């Protein structure tokens, strides 16, 4: 009974069934190959994206490190300049403190000279006043300083 439903190998129907089975198996294999190929392409794409992201991350980290190094270098330069300014300021302060007594000494000497001159003028005027007081007729002078009057 089971043999009646079976198609004989020599018959054209058998060849047609075989071709249909083979073509359906080929379609399945082609479909599997296509899916496999798509899966490989997707995996490749994801891998390439990951590589690109890793490369970009490395470059960003490198830029950030460079930026930090440059900022640190600038901060060190600024600190050096500030230290140099502090040293210069202290040197100028020392010079100033050394010059202040010199200036005070010179000013004192000038004051003393003026006071001495003032004293000499006072003494001179007192002598003249005493002289004029001793001879009251001497002031105002009667002699003409100019010969025409």
From TrEMBL:
InterPro entries on file: Remorin_C
Pfam families membership: Remorin_C
Ranges for domain Remorin C-terminal: 36-135
Segments forming a coiled coil: 71-131
Top-rank lineage group of the source organism: Eukaryota
Keyword Glycosyltransferase recorded: no
Keywords: Coiled coil
Family annotation (PANTHER family): OS02G0117200 PROTEIN, REMORIN FAMILY PROTEIN
Family assignment from sequence similarity: Belongs to the remorin family.
Record protein name field: Remorin C-terminal domain-containing protein
